[in-house]
Specification:
6-stranded parallel β-sheet; 9 helices; alpha/beta; 7-stranded mixed β-sheet
Length: about 350
């Protein structure tokens, strides 16, 4: 059977999926038997092998997402697996290893908390690796966000200095390893002095304890200010982060771990003269296949570290994974390996 003729069917008629039936607590996550999704032209059906668990999915489960999210919904903004069906002219073949993330999956259409997921071809990244699925499953959204922020957002170069605010988050830890690989000097933050070792293990040159004001600490180390700053904590500290950056340096706003995404009564004059402010919220295309391949090779060779907090086996453990993520007690990525 050709790939295109397989578009409407799969090896099985039903699959198991985690569904957010309604906004709520962990009990809103229900495992159900549902039809395997029908693949539309221009889309790819993936047999899911593993997926990372993210704050975005917790927000979806709680009903705190924007209006694009409706219920019931299969969450999951990223996943890795193998191609089950694709258009013949897509260049993708059944059984090929692929990753996917973002682009509305798990939000405006069903995501990767399932045995199968269908996504637009444009957000599929093919790869080849012998790394286990629990390692690869930690990477797509984390690496895409970190890499896109450092390259598209900050245009970080070898020899430059980078501040990462929110350094013990998965994106923060990933950004540190990528920035070091790019040749940058990295300053990164934690709110807990006891977690400085985690930052050093990720390659951070200067761990900093964040008490809400960083500009003074940063300027002691880099008197003229850092070349670039990655803001992951949010708008509550953005003004202070802007003061850490040199003239003609750049701050990239990527995340809001503290929950504040906007600034009341914002005025452009809060931005120091000559400092640039941008943002990043990119898509799968911002992580080119060759770059992803290089990262996989670096991991396999031991040159790049993957911050994995815990691996869970089976969809039945998704509730545990989200609970552990919310607790914030284990740094790194929470990964679910899909059995069967």
């Amino acid at each position: 059977m050709s790939q295109s003729s397989a578009a409407g069917g799969a090896a099985q008629a039903t699959m198991r999926a985690v569904i957010v039936t309604r906004p709520g607590g962990l009990d809103a996550l229900q495992i159900e038997d549902v039809p395997v999704p029908v693949r539309k032209p221009g889309w790819v059906r993936i047999k899911v092998k593993a997926f990372g668990v993210n704050e975005s999915e917790v927000i979806t489960r709680k009903g705190e997402s924007d209006a694009v999210v409706t219920y019931p919904r299969v969450p999951g903004i990223e996943g890795v697996g193998v191609v089950d069906a694709a258009d013949e002219d897509s260049g993708l073949r059944p059984g090929q290893q692929v990753a996917t993330m973002m682009g509305g999956m798990g939000r405006s259409y069903d995501g990767a908390y399932a045995q199968y997921v269908t996504v637009p071809e444009a957000q599929v990244i093919p790869f080849e690796t012998t790394l286990p699925w629990d390692v690869v499953g930690a990477l797509p959204e984390m690496f895409q966000t970190a890499y896109g922020s450092l390259t598209r957002g900050l245009d970080l170069k070898s020899g430059q200095t980078l501040l990462i605010r929110g350094g013990t988050s998965t994106v923060g830890l990933s950004a540190a390893t990528i920035a070091k690989d790019l040749g940058a000097t990295v300053l990164s933050t934690t709110r807990s002095p006891g977690r400085a070792g985690e930052l050093r293990a990720a390659g951070v040159d200067h761990p900093l304890v964040d008490d809400g004001t960083l500009a003074g600490q940063v300027r002691e180390l880099v008197p003229d200010g850092v070349d670039a700053a990655l803001e992951l904590v949010g708008c509550s500290v953005l003004a202070d982060t802007l003061r850490t950056v040199r003239l003609h340096g750049t701050v990239c706003f990527t995340g809001a771990l503290a929950g504040q995404w906007s600034i009341p009564d914002f005025t452009p004059f809060m931005i120091p003269g000559g400092v640039r402010l941008t943002s990043y919220g990119g898509e799968a295309a911002d992580l080119p296949a060759d770059v992803f391949a290089q990262q996989l090779q670096a991991i396999a060779a031991g040159h790049l570290k993957v911050p994995v907090a815990k691996v869970y086996h089976g969809l039945e453990q998704v509730r545990d994974a989200q609970a552990d993520l919310e607790s914030g007690t284990m740094p790194g990525k929470h990964v679910v390996v899909v059995d069967g």
